[in-house]
Write a structure and sequence with these properties.
Number of strands: 3
Helix content: 25-40%
Order of helices and strands: EHHEE
Strand content: 5-15%
Number of helices: 2
Oligomer: single chain
Largest sheet: 3 strands, antiparallel
């Protein structure tokens, strides 16, 4: 299908996993993505969606103590 890319191609372009791309498609965050049986077709000109929820800071790493 011309004008569309696969989940694998989108993952490589956006430097994320294929599962993350599948989840973005399933959640409706990639506009124009079409589901066919077990795969997704993503428009070629689609840009990577941005985060909708800010990242929470995790615990700060502990400093290594000198022995």
């Amino acid at each position: 299908m011309t004008g569309y890319i696969s989940v694998r191609e989108a993952a490589a372009r956006w430097d994320i996993t294929t599962r993350q791309v599948q989840k973005l498609c399933a959640d409706g965050r990639i506009e124009g993505a079409v589901h066919f049986a077990n795969s997704w077709a993503i428009p070629e000109d689609t840009v990577k969606p941005t985060r909708t929820v800010p990242v929470k800071p995790g615990p700060k790493p502990k400093k290594a103590t000198e022995i």
